[in-house]
Amino acid sequence: MQLWADSDRRGRFHTTARWWSAPFAELELEVPLAGDILEVGCGHGVLSTYLAITSHARRVVGIDIDADKILLASEAILGLRPDEADLRFEVEPSGVVPPTEGGWRSIVIADVLYLLGRERRDALLAACVDALAPGGLLVIKEVDTKPLLKARISQLQELISTKVLRITDGHALEFASSEELVATLVDLGMSTMSKRIDHGYLHPHCVVLGTKPVVSVDAAG
Ligand SMILES: C[S@@+](CC[C@H](N)C(=O)[O-])C[C@H]1O[C@@H](n2cnc3c(N)ncnc32)[C@H](O)[C@@H]1O
Questions:
Q1: Among 28, 178, 18, which residue's Cα sits nearest to residue 114?
Q2: Whose CA is nearest to atom 22 of ligand 1?
Q3: Domain coordinates in residue numbering, the chain
Q4: Does the predicted model carry a pTM greater than 0.85?
Q5: Bond prior to 147 in cis (omega within 30° of 0)
Q6: Ligand 1 centroid to 80 CA: how many Å?
Q7: Which InterPro entries does this one have (predicted)?
Q8: Less Cβ around it within 10 Å: N or C end of the chain?
C-alpha cells in the first residue's frame, strides 16, 4: 500500500479499499508463478503489482480503459526497485486484448466482467482465449450471485461505485453467476472449474478457471 501513499486522496482510498475487501492473496495462488501474465481491467494496479512482487518470474502487464488509473498505477510502481518486479501498465480500448509472442501463460480478469453486459463480456472472454498460449490459464474473479445476502451487498456497492460516485467506468451492470461463466468457457472449448474464495469476506467472491487446450479441437478433429 505504501506504493500508493503519494497518490491523490481518491487513489489512496480506492487502492486501500481494494486491498482490504478483495481476496487478492487467495487469487494469487491460482496464477502461474512464471511466464507472461496479463491482467485485463487492472484499475489502479494493486492486483498486478501483487502478482509481480510475489513471484519475480512472472512478467506482468496490466491494461485498463481508464487512462487516469493507468497513470496512477504507473507512478505508484516507480517506488519499486528494478529487481523487485517485472511489471508495466498500458491503456487499451475496451475489448482489446494485446497479443504477446507465443501467447499469454495466464490472463487474469478481476471484477471487470460485471461492468460489460453479456455481449461485450462474451466477446472479451473469446478474445482472451484467442490470446492465451496453448495450455494457458484464464483466471476470472467475480462476485457470484449467491449466497443472496452477500450478493445483494456487493450489487448495491457496485451500483453506488458506478452510477453515484462514478469511481468505475463500465457499460452495464450485469452480474453473472459462476455457473454462467463456467458455461461460457466450456462453449469456448476450455476445461474449467470454479470455487468460492469468500470465506471471511463480506462479498461472495468466486474464481472461475479455464485452461485452453494444448491441441485445438479443430486440429485434433
Ligand atoms: C472494479 S475495478 C477492478 C480493478 C482491478 N481488476 C482490481 O481488482 O482491483 C474494474 C476495472 O475495470 C475497468 N474496465 C471496465 N470496462 C473495461 C473493459 N471493457 N476493458 C478493460 N477494463 C475495463 C475499469 O476501468 C476499472 O478499472
A1: 178
A2: 41
A3: 2-220
A4: yes
A5: yes
A6: 23
A7: Methyltransf_25 (IPR041698), SAM-dependent_MTases_sf (IPR029063)
A8: C
Question: Quick check: CB of 203 below 6 Å from ligand 1?
Answer: no
Cβ of 110 below 6 Å from ligand 1 = yes
Query: Stretch 144-158: mean pLDDT, rounded?
Result: 87
pLDDT-derived band at 28 (thresholds 50, 70, 90) equals very high
27 CB within 6 A, ligand 1: no
- Taking only the tens place, the pLDDT of each residue in 162-205 is 777 666 665 678 899 999 999 999 999 999 999 999 999 989 99
CA-based nearest residue to 105, from 189, 31, 216, 182: 31
Distance 65 CA to ligand 1 centre (A): 7
Q: Which residue type, as a one-letter code, is found at position 179?
A: E
Identify the DSSP state of 34: S
Distance (Å, whole) CA 80 – CA 2: 10
- Count Cβ neighbours within 10 Å for each residue of 13-37 and write b for 16 or more, e otherwise: ebbeebeeebbbebbbebbbeebbb
Which ligand 1 atom minimizes the distance to the CA of 124? 19
Q: Are 32 and 61 in contact (CB under 8 A)?
A: no
42-61 average pLDDT score: 97
